[in-house]
Recover the amino acids of this structure.
């Protein structure tokens, strides 16, 4: 009897201890994401998260979302203060900065053992954007491509052109635009804006022309080479078929001109489709590939977001499980507002949610990422200033690109010599 | 002849006042107009001010599912009023001290108080973040209220001191002779007379805390603790902005300020200038 009591007590204590320990093992992952306004998307996120918690009852996940304009500052302050989340998405162009600063960890070991996260499952340009000095610091979550050629079919008809045959080459684009340009209407609208978006357009022109912004190991600027010079010559020529004021316009201002029916064609990413439909429900529009030089290839520039794990995260294995889950085909397709970075998910997403899915998909598979450099925002600013100088005529094209190349080389040298 | 000239002046004044009002109110009119338009009316060419098919859709969406706007609104009210109450409590006594009492180091301390206003916010935000973080206040309303005190108490003290200086000392002395204690004289004579000044100061503090962005952005992380100036960016996406919702939210944010201004307008305008010449 006494023994029985003792045994019962031991049993109870043991059970309690085990359950306490098991309870303590439940980990919480803090995940920072971008704010999404779409109610359906929020619902899909909740459902996907509930399923994850079913699969991994020991892992709790807490989402905190931020609007784009505040997101980078919040991440940098938190990371610098040593209190970052466990996981977050980062813009492709911030990834090198976070990698170089040691805020986030390389994921190669996890990838090597993973069944689902493999390079071939994602758009290669997006995957490569997460590489830094040979290591992979992020898994692509979603992507977008600058740019596709949106066009207003009415402009083609008015100019006596076939609206089913959008221009393919640079020369055709210019000629078609010229025919469309008249009083209060234009072939297209350029813009410079304030952020790092205009580089996506000028880089895409350079990529299409076989050029590049930096050399392969990102140590030397190539903007003074003929490929970049010729692409900027074409860009400047488009001023003739564009309403004045491009230097002070943003991409959004120019996009508004398109939806207001003032432009025949406009270069913008696939995510703009819903906006065109909402703002111009009457307009008959379509999408063509980004124009290419006569003997070049239509190459766009990638934008998008990668998922990273922070160095301070206490439960990195759990964090990896979440990333594997969130970027898997089935989930990636549902929880992404931009095109999913998982190729299979992207196909199905584009078929369900976008018009002209084949054109978009093709453009995505041919897109390149922007230069991988921890101080990319500074580099982008030098490029943007050169673009401004070229468009205003303050400098001629060769001189502007030569100066920009010199400035960028100084920036690269400064960085690499002080961060060896 | 003289009368005609005067009438001419009146007309001229009216014209200028009208032009000024148009200039000042035009952005607000655009805001209102956009908030009542569906997306296909927002960016037409040429633009027009009066919506052809006015809609309340944007206002409904601002409070709709997935939107935290109502929460942000409540948080802002809480933080702005909380800060104002504390600032008034501290600065009424402090400024009276600076106005009336003699104590060693008075002018040095007062100068120091003003000096604290000279630091740009950007320069003190990181140290403040660390302090708040070590005090365990990060991501709480306290961090905001305490942070706001740092720059609004000096303003409050400085404004109120001028009002107290404007009240004749004789009145208090008379009250003391009639049997009041110093404290009673303060409560019964000085405070009622300084009421316009206190109202103006309160309104001023409310205005600056209602629209404060940088501290609110830095100290608060959790979504349901964010205030309006930060929260309104929910409507601004990476590539695209939901202009209709954004403008509807902006109109809603302005309303409390307008109401407050209607109530305190007289005191604010009179009060601030009254203080100015005595400073």
């Amino acid at each position: 009897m006494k023994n029985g009591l003792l045994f019962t007590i031991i049993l109870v204590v043991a059970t309690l201890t085990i359950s306490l320990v098991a309870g303590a093992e439940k980990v919480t992952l803090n995940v920072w994401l971008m704010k999404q306004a779409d109610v359906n998307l929020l619902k899909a996120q909740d459902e996907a998260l509930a399923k994850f918690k079913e699969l991994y009852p020991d892992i709790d996940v807490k989402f905190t979302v931020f609007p784009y304009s505040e997101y980078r500052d919040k991440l940098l302050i938190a990371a610098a203060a040593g209190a970052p989340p466990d996981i977050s998405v980062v813009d492709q162009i911030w990834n090198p900065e976070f990698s170089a600063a040691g805020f986030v960890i390389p994921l190669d070991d996890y990838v090597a053992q993973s069944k689902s996260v493999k390079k071939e499952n994602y758009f290669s340009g997006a995957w490569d954007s997460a590489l830094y000095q040979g290591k992979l610091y992020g898994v692509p979550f979603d992507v977008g491509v600058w740019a596709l050629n949106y066009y207003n079919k009415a402009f083609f008809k008015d100019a006596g052109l076939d609206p089913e045959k959008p221009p393919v080459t640079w020369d055709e684009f210019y000629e078609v635009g010229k025919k469309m340009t008249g009083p209060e209407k234009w072939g297209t609208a350029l813009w410079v804006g304030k952020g790092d978006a205009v580089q996506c357009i000028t880089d895409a022109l350079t990529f299409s022309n076989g050029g590049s912004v930096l050399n392969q190991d990102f140590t030397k600027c190539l903007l003074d080479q003929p490929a970049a010079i010729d692409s900027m010559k074409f860009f400047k020529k488009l001023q003739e078929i564009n309403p004045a004021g491009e230097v002070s316009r943003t991409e959004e201002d120019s996009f508004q001109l398109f939806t207001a029916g003032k432009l025949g064609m406009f270069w913008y990413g696939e995510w703009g489709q819903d906006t065109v439909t909402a703002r111009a429900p009457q307009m008959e529009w379509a999408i063509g590939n980004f124009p290419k030089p006569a003997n070049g290839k239509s190459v766009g520039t990638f934008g998008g977001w990668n998922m990273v794990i922070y160095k301070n995260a206490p439960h990195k294995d759990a964090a990896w499980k979440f990333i594997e889950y969130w970027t898997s085909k089935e989930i990636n397709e549902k929880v992404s507002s931009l095109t999913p970075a998982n190729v299979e998910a992207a196909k199905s997403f584009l078929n369900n949610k976008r018009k002209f899915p084949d054109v978009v998909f093709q453009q995505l598979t041919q897109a390149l990422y922007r230069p991988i450099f921890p101080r990319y925002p500074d580099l982008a600013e030098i490029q943007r200033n050169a673009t401004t100088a070229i468009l205003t005529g303050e400098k001629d094209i060769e001189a502007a690109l030569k100066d920009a190349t010199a400035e960028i080389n100084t920036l690269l040298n400064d960085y690499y010599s002080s961060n060896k | 002849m003289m009368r005609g000239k005067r009438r001419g002046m009146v007309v001229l004044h009216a014209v200028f006042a009208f032009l000024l009002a148009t200039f000042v109110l035009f952005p607000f009119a655009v805001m209102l107009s956009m908030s009542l338009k569906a997306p296909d009316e927002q960016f037409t060419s040429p633009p027009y001010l009066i919506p052809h098919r006015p809609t309340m859709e944007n206002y409904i969406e601002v409070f709709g599912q997935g939107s935290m706007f109502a929460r942000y609104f409540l948080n802002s009210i809480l933080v702005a009023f909380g800060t104002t109450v504390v600032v008034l409590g501290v600065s009424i006594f402090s400024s009276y001290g600076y106005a009336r009492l003699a104590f060693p180091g008075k002018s040095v301390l007062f100068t120091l108080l003003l000096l604290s206003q000279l630091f740009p916010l950007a320069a003190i935000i990181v140290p403040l973040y660390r302090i708040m973080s070590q005090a365990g206040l990060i991501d709480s309303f306290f961090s905001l209220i305490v942070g706001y005190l740092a720059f609004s108490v000096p303003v409050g003290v400085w404004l109120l001191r001028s009002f107290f200086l404007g009240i004749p000392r004789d009145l208090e002395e008379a009250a003391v002779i009639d049997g009041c204690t110093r404290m009673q004289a303060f409560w019964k004579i000085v405070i009622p007379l300084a009421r316009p000044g206190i109202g103006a100061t309160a309104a001023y503090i409310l205005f600056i805390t209602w629209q404060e962005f940088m501290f609110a952005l830095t100290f608060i992380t959790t979504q349901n603790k964010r205030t309006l100036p930060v929260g309104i960016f929910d409507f601004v996406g990476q590539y695209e902005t939901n202009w209709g919702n954004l403008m509807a939210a902006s109109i809603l944010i302005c309303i409390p300020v307008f109401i407050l201004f209607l109530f305190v307008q007289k005191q604010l305008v009179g009060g601030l200038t009254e203080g100015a010449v005595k400073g």
